[in-house]
Automatic annotation (TrEMBL):
Cofactor: Zn(2+)
Organism: candidate division TA06 bacterium DG_24
Any one GO molecular function term: hydrolase activity
Residue stretches making up the Metallo-beta-lactamase domain: 12-189
Pfam families from the UniProt entry: Lactamase_B
Protein name: Beta-lactamase
InterPro entries the UniProt entry points to: MBL_Glyoxalase_II, Metallo-B-lactamas, RibonucZ/Hydroxyglut_hydro
Domain of life, per lineage: Bacteria
Length: 213
């Protein structure tokens, strides 16, 4: 797998450029800002971008959708429940940052259990709500993009509209903790880690297990 992580924008959100080494087909996960940097990485990696995938609809994960789509003609993918956020500055929280940012609408609205094929690379869509109603994680072979559901030592905020603390704990317990310890975790913010480390140091894991027993 071709892989590059780029921290973008004022919140230093993680944008991921991934691709298939055999076909050079690629995708950009969560292009939140700094389209020029992202496109530079795409060119350097010699990828043809087929998909622009948003793990959820907040501005720091969709902010460069428009520029990426214009440059690559990649299809924008997001869960059905977060799709309205793309075209609503109030819902995507851009107004909170003093901006009025719209993304193009979704080309494909995702559902739990969908599969995204990027050449020989396969990403399975998992609905992991709590940070937003339509938050998703993307599971590949030995790794998961967790968006703003689960970080190395924390979880996504649940005090924004549509957030739910109980729901995000349930997503962690019932979906993400099912992955084995060696699974690489690529979060929406912060550093890459493993599920083993998360089990050891993330206090919300214990809270999820205790609260939902």
């Amino acid at each position: 797998m071709i892989f590059e992580q780029i921290m973008v924008g004022p919140t230093q959100a993680n944008c991921y450029v991934v691709g298939c080494a055999e076909t050079r087909v690629g995708a950009v996960v969560d292009p939140g800002d700094e389209a020029v940097r992202i496109l530079s990485a795409v060119r350097r990696l010699d990828l043809e971008i087929s998909y622009i995938i948003n793990t959820h609809g907040h501005i720091d994960h969709i902010g460069a959708n428009k520029e990426l789509k214009e440059a690559t003609d990649g299809a924008i993918l997001i869960h059905r429940l977060d799709a309205p956020m793309l075209i609503s500055p109030s819902r995507n929280m851009s107004l909170l940052f003093g901006k009025f940012t719209n993304s193009p609408p979704a080309d494909r609205e995702l559902e739990d259990g969908d599969t995204i094929e990027i050449g020989s690379l396969r990403l399975d869509v998992m609905h992991t709500p709590g940070h937003t109603p339509g938050g998703i994680s993307l599971a590949g072979k030995g790794f998961v993009f967790t968006g703003d559901t689960l970080f190395a030592e924390s979880i996504g905020r649940t005090d924004f509209p549509g957030g739910s603390y109980q729901q995000i704990l349930r997503s962690i317990r019932e979906r993400l903790l099912a992955f084995p310890d060696e699974t690489e975790i690529y979060p929406g913010h912060g550093w890459t880690t493993t599920m083993a480390d998360i089990r050891q140091v993330n206090p919300f894991v214990a809270e999820a297990l205790r609260t939902l027993e």
